[in-house]
Predict the structure.
Amino acid sequence: MNNFSRRGFALALGATSLTAACANGVGSNGGARIDARVDSTLNQMYAQYPGTSTLRAKSTGMLVMPLVTEAGLGLGGAYGRGALRINDVTVDYYSVAKASGGLQIGAQQYAHVLFFMTDEALLNFRRSPGWAAGANVEYAIPSGGETLAAETTTSTAPIIAVIFGQSGLRLGATLDGTKYTRIIP
């Protein structure tokens, strides 16, 4: 019985330490940290891809994920945290998670922004307990120094995803199968 108590104590201590390391406790500055990263990411995106300013002006809201880390070796996954902004004001915080399987190896990091182009798309996203990206997302992935412009196909899409700032050893980035969940930072 004495061993069980020690083991239970060790597990409780480990769980408490892990939870404290998440920096998601009440009174933490998690929201301020996310907002600062979102501001920096948006400034970089607007400077590097001026066409995104037009998307922002036409959108009803934006979900900004400043840093998504993705890694895989056979099985893979990705995680990041960001903010939903409506009229340039943060209204909610979200996490993004992705799991994948198949022939894959490596790791990468990237930023992405979802532009909600209709009120209905934004409302569906906000009402969902866990929203998964799929066929209703149009991708505008700039590469190199090229300009990003909203074309005819993307201008009619309810949600436009811009993925940029990729670094790492994996090729490409996609949001298919990615799940977004509201969090309290």
User: Anything to note?
Assistant: The helical segments are 2-21, 30-48, 51-58, 119-127, 152-155. The beta strands are 61-86, 89-116, 131-132, 137-140, 159-168, 179-183. The chain is about 30% helix and 40% strand. Residues 23-183 form one domain.
